[in-house]
Amino acid sequence: MNDQVIDHSTQAINVGSKSFASAAKLFDERTRQSAVMLYAWCRHCDDVIDGQTLGHGQVEGDRSTGEARLAELVDLTERAYAGEPMRDPAFAAFQQVIQRHQIPREYPLEHLAGFRMDVQDYRYQTLDDTLLYCYRVAGVVGLMMAKVMGAEAEATLDRACDLGMAFQLTNIARDIVEDAEIGRVYLPADWLAEAGIPAEAIGLPYNRPALALLAARLVDLAEPYYRSASQGLRDLPLRSAWSIATAHGVYRQIGVEVKARGAAAWDTRVSTTSAQKLQFLLGGGMLALASRKMPLTPRPDSLWTRPRRA
């Protein structure tokens, strides 16, 4: 491993996501390196599309050249798979990860297709549209992370995808107003119409009570995905299961808090406290151990099903 690549990736995760940085420390060293490098690539692509720096400055970011930026990301991703030397640290890290863990090419390309939905100002008419976005920007990240942890079975990959879906549904609920301020609306248009909220007025204070009901609906929608994801812990190495169980608890709590705050959910950004993170760290360890003997239940047919590889 190139130390410069690892250092760059570690900085990206420490600034971009303190929660994931903490959870990643539970991995064994080899898995942690790969997970951090994969995160650095995901963070880099997101920043390039939004004109951000490690997840910051989104409101001020210039997205006018999004199509060209996306095309460059796709090109670099293809070149990484072709084995060409990568000068960009994020892509050098990405190349090492995909080679080490044999990550299928369609996963990162599907992830970039999620960014294309942002670049093209995709309009989410139905819940299926929103779930497709969740799959692309987060579900496939779950698939890639699962591969990093050594998962191969399709059933385990399904549960990893479910966790990504749950995370993104939680993110959407937490960030509805913040996203709306930059013209991004991920709530289904038919939900908004049903609630009597014009898409261009989502962030206005007088719509907050109705918006809170839709956010609660998203949080409730995420719950079966969280439950399904917990079934995948049993098939991961213990330290990986501990890390994922910790992240599972932290993100799920964010959704719980969004729902509990109601119309005040967007007065300040919802996050978890240090005490709560410690609680989920300890609880995650217990859940990871318990998962070794956890009876496997069938994945609900009602959940959105990821596309299968040809």
From TrEMBL:
<dbReference type="GO" id="GO:0016740">
    <property type="term" value="F:transferase activity"/>
</dbReference>
<dbReference type="InterPro" id="IPR008949">
    <property type="entry name" value="Isoprenoid_synthase_dom_sf"/>
</dbReference>
<dbReference type="InterPro" id="IPR019845">
    <property type="entry name" value="Squalene/phytoene_synthase_CS"/>
</dbReference>
<protein>
    <submittedName>
        <fullName>Phytoene/squalene synthase family protein</fullName>
        <ecNumber>2.5.1.-</ecNumber>
    </submittedName>
</protein>
<dbReference type="Pfam" id="PF00494">
    <property type="entry name" value="SQS_PSY"/>
</dbReference>
<dbReference type="InterPro" id="IPR002060">
    <property type="entry name" value="Squ/phyt_synthse"/>
</dbReference>
<dbReference type="InterPro" id="IPR044843">
    <property type="entry name" value="Trans_IPPS_bact-type"/>
</dbReference>
<dbReference type="InterPro" id="IPR033904">
    <property type="entry name" value="Trans_IPPS_HH"/>
</dbReference>
<keyword id="KW-0808">Transferase</keyword>
